[in-house]
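Structure in, sequence out. Go:
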């Protein structure tokens, strides 16, 4: 249907799905000769005023010449794009390349005139802004660097589209027309505008799914049981505040209600607007359902149906078609193969999931790609159990299933400014866009805690239903990069819930100092040891003895909370025996009372077999399922709100004076679990403080960026990818102020002697064969050779031990000052982006994996942190009386490597090994660089939804 118009083939890579300001979707694609009828129909629906603003004169209809002009493009000098919904145009944009005289031109002219037209019914949805991003990217691809636009002064909406885009621009007024000129090179402001628009649009698209005014369950069966009927009952029983419909084409024509819910045979039979459709029909019938929903104006779908990508290649193709079909109608999808969604807000009360009971309202947002893990998470937070005592409720829950459309990134966009969510918990089995996730996670973590557990870490592949880009980075590196972004990375579901409960209930600690008090000396010592293991600084435990009363606990906790030498308190409690023993409720009240009187520090309780204490600590916050006293067929009523749900606020609908907030203290059945959660909170709090001042990427006057670019361009002209030779490596690194000690090849003893005379004694003789490189432990290196005699003897020893010179590849190198051997690496991963890594050379990094990682570009503060992040860092700072080495010089080297890779993405890999860091200065003794065309970066282009 779509074909080339003039000179160039149809550019299919310009096609994209986008999320608009109101959360709906549209498809952007090039306009072709086949679009003549669509263009005419589109133009007929545009108001006379909008036509006047576009053509500066009354223009009621397009002539045949106009239609030909606006549909015939060469995709180079003349380009038109259309935004479509349901296959029909809702907006168009075009550019025409012009010369200095303003007349049509071809390359090398680098300016173009641009003009938009948006249907009146779709104005205000952000369509023009999205089209500007895409037409700008197309223009840059075609070597156009500047746009010009002429706009009538009264056309304020279009002027605002241009001025708000964030590009560097000039504005003039002549002959009654505003002329705008702006460069298309992305700026910090234009990227910030783009990211802000992306956040608002994607958050709104998720809000339309989680806050619907009406819901239709399609596939609700006539008989009890089955997925559709179960979800219908769950929505009804949760007390959904909107309109609810049951839809099934198998319903008898005279069926008007199903379980008290209006019943219809088709979406077409529903007279009112339906915002959300929950689809629970066999996969073969889903396309018809999607078409009905799209024609009815449904805003989003939750597809519970299975039989898609998780079932194999045929299912994957069905999943692709499902996404394409839904987006064509402007709808977003959760699923397929999803468990469902939940919103506990009193204004919504939506349980469109397979969870039989509505979780209690709270401040934790949950996202799970797995339905089974979603069940486990809801269960842990819904009931008292799983070892975690006390319960904090849920704000929203999303189980994405195959994650064909709506992903964790979209939900993060929603949670970022959701006032009902204080903590975000995520179970991820794959990350479809790691660059974007890292960016969104960093922004979210700066506002609220984000705790993530990643499944399928060691399987080497994503679950079958997920389409993700492959990463070459090991899991440990990915985990380190997530932590750099402020993500609280945990390994198990239990740790996920443990950390979430603490972060939802308690303030962040201001430091690592921990006070420990309780009625068991042994439990206190276990807690003390656990703190040391997690890198915390515990104070000596205070033993209150087994005879401690509630008043004793209150007094001890109050004293600890006012003590300026501690930042958090862990209370340990074991059962007491005897008539005079402290009751659970009494002890819980004492602890909560003390915490409320001296707020500001987190308090945790470690209990041993004290179910009653756990319930008392949470008091009315328990969400354990109650005994079902309903009459048969009666509706389940929502759990009533209680004041203890709200740490720093009020129950819905009550004023500040109606209720006073009560502190909720999380309790744990083991010291290790409590302390691990506390350690994560301590590390996260430190990250928050550091993120407030992230540092800067320094400028170095001796960097020759242009010279490096010319060198790289010349080298890449030889082929698609290559590893540079020694001289080329030294030249390129030298452009960035990185000096590499010369190593001269020595294929014979005489050549070795000549090299040593050139370099000057003392020298080192090294075997550079792959199996011997960087393996001093194998004896392939001879150091401090003071003269020719020692050099020739060492050469003979190496050849005798390891073979002929052509196998050893020996080199001679001048000696460097003694120091600590380190390794610096940088690599561009196609999924995660550019990563800088550092560690000590040899066994520490190779055997133990003791490497630290940061995303490029690295700031000065991040370079300082990188050096200190490895476990063997004490060797750099004077361990056991050794002299500290020159870490500032090491940090500068890291920053220079970071700049090289950031400035030139064609540098896809750099290895400096070994880098000998001495007490003064450092020496780079080995270096390798690989060049290749840079991987495509979708985080710098216009906003698009992922293609499946």
């Amino acid at each position: 249907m779509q074909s080339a118009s003039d000179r160039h083939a149809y550019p299919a890579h310009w096609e994209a799905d986008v999320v608009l300001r109101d959360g709906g979707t549209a498809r952007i694609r090039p306009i072709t000769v086949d679009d003549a009828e669509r263009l005419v129909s589109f133009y007929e629906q545009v108001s006379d005023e909008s036509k006047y603003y576009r053509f500066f004169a009354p223009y009621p209809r397009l002539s045949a010449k106009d239609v030909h002009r606006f549909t015939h493009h060469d995709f180079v000098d003349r380009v038109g794009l259309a935004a479509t919904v349901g296959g029909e145009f809702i907006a168009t944009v075009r550019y025409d390349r012009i010369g200095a005289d303003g007349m049509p031109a071809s390359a090398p002219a680098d300016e173009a005139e641009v003009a938009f037209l948006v249907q009146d019914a779709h104005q205000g949805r952000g369509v023009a802004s999205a089209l500007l991003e895409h037409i700008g990217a197309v223009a840059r691809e075609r070597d156009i660097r500047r746009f010009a636009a002429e706009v009538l002064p009264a056309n304020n909406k279009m002027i605002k589209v241009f001025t708000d885009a964030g590009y560097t621009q000039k504005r003039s007024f002549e002959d009654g027309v505003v002329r705008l000129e702006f460069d298309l090179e992305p700026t910090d402001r234009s990227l910030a505008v783009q990211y802000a628009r992306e956040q608002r649009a994607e958050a709104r698209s998720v809000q339309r799914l989680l806050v619907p005014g009406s819901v239709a369950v399609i596939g609700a069966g006539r008989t009890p049981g089955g997925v559709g009927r179960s979800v219908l009952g769950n929505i009804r029983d949760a007390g959904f505040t909107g309109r609810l419909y049951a839809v099934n084409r198998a319903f008898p024509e005279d069926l008007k209600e199903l379980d008290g819910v209006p019943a219809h045979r088709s979406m077409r039979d529903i007279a009112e607007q339906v915002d959300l459709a929950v689809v629970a029909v066999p996969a073969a019938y889903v396309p018809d359902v999607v078409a009905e929903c799209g024609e009815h104006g449904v805003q989003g779908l939750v597809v519970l149906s299975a039989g898609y990508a998780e079932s194999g290649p045929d299912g994957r193709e069905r999943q692709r078609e499902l996404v394409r079909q839904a987006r064509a109608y402007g709808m977003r999808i959760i699923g397929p193969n999803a468990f469902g969604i939940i919103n506990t807000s009193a204004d919504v009360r939506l349980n469109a999931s397979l969870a039989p009971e509505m979780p209690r309202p709270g401040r934790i947002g949950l996202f799970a790609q797995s339905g089974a893990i979603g069940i486990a998470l809801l269960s842990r937070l819904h009931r008292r159990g799983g070892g975690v005592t006390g319960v904090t409720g849920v704000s929203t829950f999303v189980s994405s299933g195959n994650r064909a459309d709506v992903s964790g990134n979209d939900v993060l966009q929603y949670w970022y400014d959701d006032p009902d969510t204080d903590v975000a918990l995520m179970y991820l089995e794959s990350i479809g866009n790691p660059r974007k996730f890292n960016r969104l996670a960093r922004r979210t973590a700066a506002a609220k805690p984000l705790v993530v557990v990643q499944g399928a870490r060691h399987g080497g592949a994503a679950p079958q239903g997920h389409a993700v880009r492959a990463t070459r980075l090991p899991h440990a590196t990915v985990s380190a990069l997530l932590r750099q972004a402020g993500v609280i990375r945990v390994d198990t579901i239990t740790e996920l819930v443990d950390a979430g409960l603490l972060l939802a209930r308690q303030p962040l600690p201001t430091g690592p100092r921990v006070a420990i008090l309780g009625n068991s000396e042994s439990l206190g010592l276990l807690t003390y040891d656990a703190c040391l293991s997690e890198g915390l600084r515990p104070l000596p435990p205070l033993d209150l003895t087994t005879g401690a009363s509630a008043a004793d606990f209150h007094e001890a906790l109050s004293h600890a909370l006012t003590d300026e030498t501690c930042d958090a308190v862990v209370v340990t409690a074991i059962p007491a025996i005897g008539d005079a023993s402290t009751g659970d409720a009494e002890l819980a009240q004492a602890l909560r009372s003390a915490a409320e009187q001296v707020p500001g520090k987190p308090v945790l309780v470690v209990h041993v077999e004290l179910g009653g204490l756990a319930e008392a600590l949470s008091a009315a916050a328990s969400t354990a399922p109650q005994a079902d006293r309903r009459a048969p067929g009666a509706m389940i009523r929502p759990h009533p709100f209680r004041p203890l749900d709200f740490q720093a606020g009020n129950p819905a609908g009550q004023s500040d004076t109606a209720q006073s907030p009560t502190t909720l203290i999380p309790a744990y059945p083991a010291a290790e679990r409590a302390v691990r959660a506390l350690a994560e909170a301590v590390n996260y709090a430190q990250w928050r403080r550091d993120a407030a001042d992230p540092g800067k990427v320094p400028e170095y006057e001796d960097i020759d960026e242009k010279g490096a670019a010319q060198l790289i361009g010349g080298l890449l002209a030889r082929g698609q990818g290559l590893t540079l030779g020694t001289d080329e490596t030294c030249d390129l690194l030298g452009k960035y102020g990185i000096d590499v000690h010369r190593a001269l090849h020595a294929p014979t003893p005489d050549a070795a002697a000549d090299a040593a005379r050139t370099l000057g004694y003392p020298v080192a003789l090294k075997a550079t064969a792959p199996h011997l490189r960087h393996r001093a432990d194998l004896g392939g290196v001879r150091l401090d050779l003071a003269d020719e005699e020692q050099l020739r003897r060492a050469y003979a020893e190496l050849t005798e031990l390891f073979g002929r010179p052509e196998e050893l590849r020996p080199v001679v190198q001048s000696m460097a000052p003694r120091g600590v051997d380190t390794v610096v690496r940088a690599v561009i991963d196609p999924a995660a982006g550019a990563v800088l890594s550092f560690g000590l050379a040899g066994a520490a990094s190779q055997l133990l994996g003791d490497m630290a990682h940061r995303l490029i570009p690295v700031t000065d503060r991040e370079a300082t942190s990188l050096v200190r992040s490895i476990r063997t860092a004490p060797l750099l700072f004077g361990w056991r009386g050794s002299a500290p080495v020159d870490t500032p010089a090491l940090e500068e080297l890291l920053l220079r490597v970071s700049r090289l890779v950031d400035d030139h993405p064609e540098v896809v890999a750099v290895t400096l090994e070994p880098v000998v860091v001495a007490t003064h200065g450092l020496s780079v003794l080995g270096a390798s660089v690989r060049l290749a065309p840079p991987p495509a970066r979708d985080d710098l282009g216009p906003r698009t939804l992922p293609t499946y």
